[in-house]
Design brief:
The chain is of the alpha/beta class and about 475 residues long. Helices cover about 50% and strands about 10% of the residues. The strands form three sheets. The protein has a four-stranded parallel β-sheet with strand order 4-5-8-9, covered by helices on one side. Strands 1-2-3 form a three-stranded parallel β-sheet. The protein has a two-stranded antiparallel ribbon with strand order 6-7. The radius of gyration is 23 Å and the shape is globular.
């Protein structure tokens, strides 16, 4: 029997799956512990002129599909009108069969705007008018989308030199009870050969008030910023490790590499790896000391198209999966932090799904300390937050560890409409568990499985992070 498109039991293929979603998962609040939302836009409750501004601006997922459909760049990131950009996207949507963007598009239209029609060239004018009329009403700003999504905590992604002024003001705003907390992401401090490294070091000096004239100064300044972030409510760090390397060395050797960079020289590849290794080990100790969780986002191949990068900059849809070696350098890095004191709670993500079992087995090496799920296999990320990508991650984790201790989904998004990805994940999770029951691979014990579902959707994250 053919199912209706995206009906109430969308993706729920068994009675158990439907019961798990509707009775246990659906109503759970959201802890979105990794995203790229703007705290300034949240504080100001940004309002939107039209659906293109809230939906297409900055969304490189959509841009990639539009390019694949032959849409001219002017209608994607160029100076075409907002309506023309929206219409170009609408023309692309019916061709997205099998891509999660087709589902996300219609979930967002349904949940935020009450629109059940499918988006295409014919319905685009009507949907443009209806959504824009709702946006013009003034009741659908950034905060309103967050409240409408039942979000309790949002962790943004922030540079150590950021002032966190909007986080501080949000913390003091009694009218908005959602926690908007910073995440400490020191990528620019690790990028010792980056074009703007010395400029960033100067900013670190100014914000910390500590002279960074040598390696000791660098470490002191970073610890100062860790303490500042902690005072504002930060309890999680993040690192974009496009490639994972490990080169051990002494503190003196790392200091010599840093001094070379301060003098204006480029360091060689081995020196760069030694510096990054030493700094990651140092930072890991700082996180453990303050009971933070540490995230590693690994194996991205960024900015592949040079002309596009020079024209549009980073995060414009020209990144892909990296196939770099992971197991040995990651193991050595985690072990060095563990040997140096204590490995913090750690969440590992690889953009390469071929490494699911590498991570699924790696986390078992460093579990312990009386912390349930201390080491986490992060949710299907970026090119893996598809239906099959999520299922593959869930199955690898279940086969190699304790799926029941998983801290669940995140949006990793710049869009205030992307919280529906939690619903997408929850439906996939419930269907997978329902499938195992239907096959006789787990008892038909709805209360126990429902408890597991609610833990993965909310309670595990609530207990894992030390949010105040």
């Amino acid at each position: 029997m053919e199912k209706g498109f995206m009906d109430d039991d969308f993706m729920l293929e068994t009675p158990v799956a439907a019961a798990l979603y509707h009775e246990y998962a659906k109503q759970m609040p959201i802890i979105d512990y990794h995203c790229h939302l703007s705290p300034k836009e949240i504080y100001e409750n940004k309002k939107y002129r039209n659906i293109s501004e809230v939906w297409l601006s900055g969304d490189h997922y959509k841009w990639r599909l539009m390019r694949a459909n032959g849409i001219d760049e002017q209608l994607i990131t160029g100076d075409a009108s907002d309506y023309d950009k929206f219409y170009a996207f609408a023309r692309t949507v019916p061709l997205m069969i099998g891509n999660p963007m087709y589902h996300w598009t219609h979930l967002e239209l349904k949940r935020y705007f009450g629109i059940n029609e499918n988006l295409n060239a014919d319905t685009a004018p009507m949907i443009w008018e209806r959504v824009n009329a709702m946006l013009a009403g003034g009741s659908l700003g950034a905060r309103d989308f967050i409240r409408k999504s039942n979000v309790q905590v949002i962790c943004t992604t922030d540079d150590p030199v950021d002032s966190l002024e909007y986080h501080i003001q949000l913390k003091q705003d009694a009218a908005f009870d959602v926690k908007v907390l910073p995440t400490f992401r020191p990528d620019k401090g690790l990028d010792i050969n980056g074009d703007h490294f010395l400029e960033w070091i100067s900013k670190l000096e100014r914000t910390s008030g500590i002279a960074v004239s040598d390696y000791e100064g660098l470490l002191a300044a970073l610890e100062n910023r860790v303490d500042f972030f902690h005072s504002v409510g930060c309890r999680v760090s993040d690192h974009g490790l496009n490639d994972v390397h490990f080169v051990g060395g002494t503190k003196e050797e790392a200091a010599a590499v840093f001094a070379k960079s301060l003098a204006g020289a480029k360091v060689n590849p081995n020196e760069e790896k030694l510096y990054k290794t030493a700094l990651l080990v140092f930072l890991g100790k700082q996180y453990a000391k303050r009971d933070w969780a540490m995230q590693y986002h690994m194996n991205v191949l960024r900015n592949n198209n040079t002309p596009a990068f020079e024209s549009l900059g980073p995060d414009a849809g020209y990144d892909s999966v990296n196939d770099g070696t992971l197991a040995r350098p990651l193991s050595s890095l985690l072990d060095a932090i563990e040997c140096g004191g204590s490995l913090p709670k750690t969440i590992l993500y690889s953009l390469n799904p071929a490494q699911n079992h590498v991570i699924g087995s790696m986390i078992g090496n460093f579990q312990g300390g009386g912390i349930a799920g201390k080491m986490q296999f992060g949710s299907g990320w970026w090119f893996n937050d598809t239906k099959e990508g999520m299922i593959a991650q869930l199955k690898s984790l279940a086969e190699l560890g304790l799926l029941s201790r998983f801290i669940g989904m995140l949006t990793d998004s710049r869009s205030f409409l992307s919280f529906t990805r939690h619903e997408y994940f929850r439906r996939i999770l419930c269907n997978l568990l329902g499938e195992w029951v239907a096959k006789g691979e787990y008892p038909h014990d709805i209360e126990t499985i429902g408890m597991i579902v609610q833990r993965i959707c909310y309670h595990n994250a609530q207990e894992y992070f030390s949010f105040e």
